[in-house]
TrEMBL record, chains A, B:
This is Acyl-CoA dehydrogenase. Residues 161-267 form the Acyl-CoA oxidase/dehydrogenase middle domain. Its EC number is 1.3.8.-. Residues 466-591 form the Acetyl-CoA dehydrogenase-like C-terminal domain. It comes from Polaromonas aquatica. Keywords: FAD, Flavoprotein, Oxidoreductase. Residues 75-156 form the Acyl-CoA dehydrogenase/oxidase N-terminal domain.
Length: 596, 596
């Protein structure tokens, strides 16, 4: 079925939760107010609904294929990418200096969601280019920037991230690819990289690989890793493409989902060495790669929201159409569309509440990113930076884990038809499963949340967020409607559970690392659940205000009901999770290895 | 990877939770004590590990295919089915009168688990034959029994269940297939049936279809449905196969999982009418079909346990082998197998606890089934019948829903490799998703739990079970170890949550059906969680007793840790679910249809 961008909900978040008007006060974003957001999102919706969404199922049926080192993408992808590039979508958030549109992430994130709802396999190509652009912007030499950035920003070329090797997945200390310095300042790169998304394809003239490798003699471990640009085709001084570089696609993976997206094994240096250019300084590669990864982690979180939205839309359409059985309340005397059955509503409301909650969380995080990078006041930048960094593992970890549940419910709503591939619901279920794995598994996100984001500052950022949530509870109680008060009660219980866990984590990470890391993923899930639920609570306050003003009553009532559902059905999980984390750590690691 | 039957755990359950010695006191089961159980399970393990497990991945790669009405199953399946039949496995639980072995379900269920762990797609064929056999045993005429039963029990022929039609999935009132009475007492059957598992295949000489259809002039709705036997090949008086009957496979589905199992669209009567024989009386078809379905629902619950076990075994093997990163507690100074990481242990423990808990629940339910059918004392039969009937939706609904989480964790433990089809973990994830759908979706199980199993007797059976659980809590507190007391605390909280929900359900089903059915699936999940956790608590008591006696210390310690994990990490979900069900019903159905 075709995708319909949830423009109203996106714009509600951008306006009321992310406060676009405040973003538009930041120098450089003066033009990026609500009206711009609306215009960009509407245009973006047209493109994704019209061009990319119709290609999604085709990508599943006719995945990318490899023949003699050449990857042919799904029919229609190449032309769609041309349109994507010509529409300027690749440059949306990138600096105008290099041909981008310089829009804030607050707007860009919503566009990213549309792209991924319409066609997640396609969207991965621009997603990786974004990462490459950010790494070059931050650490690339002026020369590298001059040669590569404009072409990447325009979508004429695409970018990749080359981290993983057969023995080095989450553990980058084990990277073995090597780079030998050459007299002319370039390097010769050798090694095998796996799981390289769009590592080879036919949608752009050139591919700019960003590759982690060790310079001969570098220290062991992650402190000896450097970052290189290795183009597929060499680039002449005139910007024209020259000879083929010594990097080759030797196979692509046969995956459960995102089949249209070619996942390449790349072989570097089999014929004398691939010519590479160092990015920044030697041995600081991991640091630069984290720039790409942080950008990509947020974007993968948005992928979770995007596929959840799509699964929801498809399930709603089916539930309104499929006629089976009479409603239990006797309101209809004949077999009725299944959306009349309470359990089908429960499934749809669960899908909806998760999706809207995570969208709110991502939107607010995006606004913090914009302020952290561009606000004139250093203190404001710092606060927003801390908030954003706390949000990244939640956006990535929680939104992707929830997408597994939502896409599973999506199949379930379809009943037996959901299991038949032609229906299309199964594709979302299969596609989604990669999201909790790539760009750092949920456990890796949780390590980040525990280590860098909670223990390091003694739980200070976490507690500051808890303080903001407490203020929302007070506002809800002050508002005083039955829904607001009920939501405040659940929010309070979840926030108190969160604070308990933060104390447990901050207090024990050094002394009892096993106990803390035994609960790291549950902590992430609790935190994500809380923050998404908090955004729903904030949305409820706005909706009640707007409703009182008579603005868009149907939408506002639905928002209130969805917020209430989030509180009563999802936030209610939090206290039990606290018990598991704080009181149930020992039994996680108690079993002898031989007993498994 | 190859499957290794968890014989020790199965026999622990059969001996200590299901009390096989009590089952063996029932007339007819005198030979079916622990020693028999052990001997049968060991033999069964050999067959499934050696013959069926190696074919599982092949079935995913080379699914059944249809050409000119003929279905060719996966290479190796036909021969494996021959071995299955020759080994007497089809007749395990069926009466000796018809060539079966007459063993109790307490033993048969464990064999069913093995079969499904080894090869779920294959196992579906015998599973459906079991249903056909039970329906004929209960309602078939002596003539039908004489012609069909022995051949089905021996595995020479196989059986199918034909319920679903394009417009009639969960809603059997909408069945349109029709049967015209013929002067000779037979019927001519016409109609289209979809989703017919092993509706056509090449593994047996004949296929015995059990088909729901309406006799001309029958009442509308479910009270006008009759059940027919329609053989693929006519059977002569001498038992020899005759002409092809007018039932034909016109297509098979392209599914997300269980690909080796052909899911047929069957066309009845395109050439004058398929000859059918009525089972029992006209218009009582649904009643008889429920016999097949109840048997099949329990069996599908066991499929959930089976695939969870397989996913767990595969994840453990990978986690012990895959080396990535150093343990957070510094216990190993180099990169270590990932099983050393607390979050990997958490995932494996979750998989293990769910699987063992549900296995315990299924084992206890099987013993109740045996007593309910065969115990000489009518009161004992009645009590066990009530208990078993309460368990069926839990075994089916909870064990299959948990299998989705467990197979998802199985992929997650594998990281990126899990998403690659060649690894095999993805197959379990894809295969499992059908389990919450077929033989009645989770919502259908929940309707059964709410309506027939809870409201009808005013919550009496549910409260009786709660009373038994309370007794286990007392025993745990009396035992007094830290683990026992901790488990008792979680069990008490979960049991109290359950009782609250039972009161809510029993008290409101008639007056506020929307409110009750809005929480029907959460109620099922809470009840299943509680009962499985209760079995883990009972297992802990046994294990501490055995440990004190010095019996199999490693196994008993692992059981205690797993029970503790179940309590602290899974039972802790119960109170939050109570809140959602009892206090959060209204928002489930509040949203206007147009707002979706």
């Amino acid at each position: 079925m075709s995708y319909k961008a949830p423009l109203k909900d996106m714009l509600f978040d951008i306006q009321h939760l992310a406060n676009i008007d405040q973003v538009a006060q930041i120098p450089g974003f003066e033009e990026a107010g609500f009206d711009t957001a609306q215009a960009v999102l509407e245009e973006c919706a047209k493109f994704n609904e019209g061009v990319l969404s119709p290609l999604n199922r085709e990508g599943d049926i006719n995945p990318s294929s490899l023949k003699a080192g050449v990857v042919t993408t799904t029919p229609g992808f190449k032309d769609a990418f041309k349109q994507y590039a010509e529409g300027g979508w690749q440059g949306l958030q990138h600096p105008t200096d290099f041909g981008g549109q310089g829009l804030p992430k607050t707007i860009g994130a919503a566009c990213g969601e549309m792209l991924n709802s319409a066609n997640m396999s396609f969207a991965l190509c621009p997603l990786l280019s974004d990462g490459a652009i950010e790494a070059l912007l931050t650490a690339g030499s002026d020369e590298l920037k001059a040669v590569y950035l404009e072409k990447l920003v325009s979508g004429q070329w695409t970018g990749t991230m080359n981290l993983t090797e057969p023995q080095a997945g989450s553990d980058l200390a084990m990277v073995r690819s090597r780079a030998e310095p050459q007299p002319d300042g370039t390097y010769k790169v050798f090694g095998t990289k796996i799981f390289i998304t769009y590592g080879e394809h036919d949608m752009a003239e050139n591919i700019v690989h960003l590759v982690l490798a060790r310079v001969s003699g570098a220290p062991e471990g992650v402190k000896g890793i450097s970052l290189f640009v290795v183009p597929k085709f060499m680039v002449g001084k005139d910007g024209k493409l020259g000879a083929r570089n010594d990097v080759h696609c030797v196979s692509i993976e046969h995956k459960m989902g995102i089949k249209a997206s070619p996942t390449a094994v790349l072989q570097y240096g089999d014929n004398g060495g691939a010519i590479g250019y160092i990015v920044g300084e030697e041995n600081r590669g991991l640091e630069y790669m984290f720039i790409m990864m942080n950008s990509a982690r947020y974007a993968v979180g948005v992928q979770g929201i995007a596929i959840a939205e799509m699964a929801y839309q498809k399930a709603v359409t089916f539930a309104k159409d499929r006629v089976q059985s009479r409603p239990v309340d006797g309101s209809i005397k004949a077999s009725a569309p299944i959306i009349h059955h309470p359990d089908v509503k429960r499934m749809l409301m669960t899908m909806r509440a998760y999706t809207e909650g995570c969208r709110g969380m991502a939107s607010v995080a995006a606004a913090a990113y914009d302020a952290s990078h561009h606000h004139p006041d250093a203190e404001v930048r710092k606060q927003n930076q801390a908030f954003y960094e706390f949000m990244v593992p939640l956006v990535k970890g929680y939104s992707t884990e929830m997408s597994l549940e939502v896409t599973s419910l999506g199949v379930q709503v379809h009943g037996g038809m959901g299991f038949i591939e032609e229906t299309g619901a199964a594709q979302y279920y299969r596609d989604a499963k990669i999201l909790t794995i790539y760009e750092g598994t949920t456990a890796i996100q949780a390590n980040d949340l525990v280590g860098r984001k909670t223990s390091r500052d003694g739980g200070q950022t976490a507690k500051a967020i808890a303080g903001q949530i407490q203020a929302t509870e007070a506002a809800l109680n002050k508002q005083g409607s039955a829904d607001a008060v009920a939501v405040a009660k659940r929010l309070k219980a979840a926030r108190e559970a969160f604070v308990d866990v933060v104390d447990f984590v901050a207090g024990n990470t050094k002394a009892s690392p096993n106990a803390v890391f035994a609960g790291s993923v549950p902590y992430l899930m609790l935190a994500g659940n809380l923050v998404a639920g908090w955004q729903m609570a904030r949305a409820l306050l706005v909706a009640q205000e707007q409703l009182a003003k008579g603005v868009d009553a149907d939408f506002m009532k639905a928002k209130i009901t969805t917020a209430r559902f989030y509180a009563d059905h999802l936030l209610t999980k939090a206290p039990g999770m606290r018990d598991s984390i704080v009181e149930g750590a020992d039994c996680v690691t108690a079993l002898a290895l031989e007993a498994f």
